[in-house]
Task: structure prediction
Amino acid sequence: MLKPIALAGFCVIALVGCSTYVNIPAEDGSIASDDANLERVRNIQVEAINALIARQRVAGPVKITLAPGSSPETYAAVLPQIAVEAVGPDRLAPVAIAVTGVRIRTYNGEVDLAVSGASVVDSLVTVSLDSAPLNDWWVDRIRPWGPINDPARTQPPAVQPPDAPAGKPADS
Result:
């Protein structure tokens, strides 16, 4: 009697654990899903975008670009759930939010967002979220990485060959 119960428990754990690992964009050698159209991926994007909108006090309309690989059906399901008027990537709006990455590890997830526009500071943000069995996502923290136009964050340092004099950049 104990073996069928243990087997059933193992199957549930295996299904929950394996089916909820997501890397978008895909990582080489990863067994995680990279399907941007999964319901769990849709839901985490909604919560992350809405958290950023609330934190930045963004008024609509907002141009939303979902994770790479999102289908028209995913846009149709997600955009109505955004807290302000949201339009797809083919439209213009004063503020734009783009999902650049999604990582889900069972009940923990992160969504990378780029935000730009007239009423916000252009920046990169990671929203960390948690969930529980049969529950929606909730925001754990929002980590701003700094302005997009900060040269220290967007330009790699000049590469110098080993024999180049100090302070003189290498020729390209």
